[in-house]
From TrEMBL:
PANTHER family: RING FINGER AND CHY ZINC FINGER DOMAIN-CONTAINING PROTEIN 1. The lineage of its organism: Eukaryota, Metazoa, Chordata, Craniata, Vertebrata. E3 ubiquitin-protein ligase that mediates ubiquitination of target proteins, including p53/TP53, TP73, HDAC1 and CDKN1B. Mediates ubiquitination and degradation of p53/TP53; preferentially acts on tetrameric p53/TP53. Catalyzes monoubiquitinates the translesion DNA polymerase POLH. Involved in the ribosome-associated quality control (RQC) pathway, which mediates the extraction of incompletely synthesized nascent chains from stalled ribosomes: RCHY1 acts downstream of NEMF and recognizes CAT tails associated with stalled nascent chains, leading to their ubiquitination and degradation. This is RING finger and CHY zinc finger domain-containing protein 1. The keyword Nucleotide-binding does not apply.
Length: 268
């Protein structure tokens, strides 16, 4: 269950005594993986030294053999680990991997973000309190870093990387493009120019909704993509059928009805 060098999650030389069940585990994650309930890290009061097995009050050094339980220790989160330049953010309520000077706490997003995002990101209120829309796991307390999309929504960094590898370019929540797609849109322009539609579809139009600028417009139909007339994005969704075909079908139906009525009048 534990060793003197910690677990796959943390490097530490003590075990936490779970306040919920009284069992000893290296960390809350190891506990939660084994038990049918979760450990409240903030309620941990006692630890056991892995060197001399002394059970004692949670602190950075053993009161009996004086070994250091962790290079970093937070007496709020009861986090023991090797030094990763961690710091405790009072507003987040948990420890973050630093260094502190490279991060700031965005009060609206309610999350610590890299300094280069200060004034350079779209705020979504309490965005970190939502689960990652890819893996559906918690983001706020996750040991995995968060990636901030252009729309302001968050994904785990590894989930974002996996999404990119699969060729997905839209936010799973709002469908907004996650990066500048201008070059890709130009490529689609060229492909459409080189791939004219069959005669029966030329001139056909369709209503669309743009996922990037939320504009509703009527544009030429093409199987390779429908381009927003406002922001020039191909990140669009079709809203209804082909308008020209509908008009043609209605006209054909009307012509058929007119012919039938004419034949009825001229019958002897």
């Amino acid at each position: 269950m534990a060793s003197s060098t910690g677990c796959t999650h943390y490097l530490r030389s003590c075990l936490l005594k779970a306040p919920c069940c009284g069992k000893l585990y290296v960390c809350r994650l190891c506990h939660d993986a084994e038990e049918n309930h979760q450990m409240d890290r903030f309620k941990v009061r006692e630890v056991q030294c892995c060197e001399c097995q002394t059970v004692q009050q949670a602190q950075q050094n053993c009161e009996q053999c004086h070994i250091q339980f962790g290079e970093y220790y937070c007496d709020i989160c009861h986090l023991f680990d090797k030094n990763k330049k961690q710091y405790h953010c009072q507003l987040c309520g948990i420890c973050r991997i630093g260094p502190r000077e490279k991060y700031f706490h965005c009060e609206k997003c309610n999350l610590c973000l890299a300094q280069d995002l200060r004034g350079n990101h779209k705020c979504v209120e309490n965005v970190s309190r939502q689960n990652c829309p890819v893996c559906m796991e918690d983001i706020h307390t996750s040991r995995i870093g968060a990636h901030v999309l252009r729309c302001g929504h968050l994904l785990h960094k590894n989930c974002f990387d996996d999404m990119v590898k699969m060729g997905a370019y839209r936010c799973p929540l709002c469908m907004h493009s996650v990066w500048d797609m201008a070059d890709h849109w130009k490529q689609i322009d060229q492909e459409i120019a080189q791939s004219p539609m069959p005669p029966e579809y030329q001139g056909a139009t369709v209503k669309i909704m743009c996922n990037d600028c939320q504009t509703h417009c009527t544009v030429p139909f093409h199987v390779l993509g429908m381009k927003c007339s406002s922001c020039r994005s191909y990140n669009t969704a079709q809203d209804g059928g082909l308008m020209q075909q509908q008009q043609q079908q209605q006209q054909q139906q009307q012509n058929t009805e007119d012919e039938a009525e004419t034949e009825q009048h001229i019958q002897p």
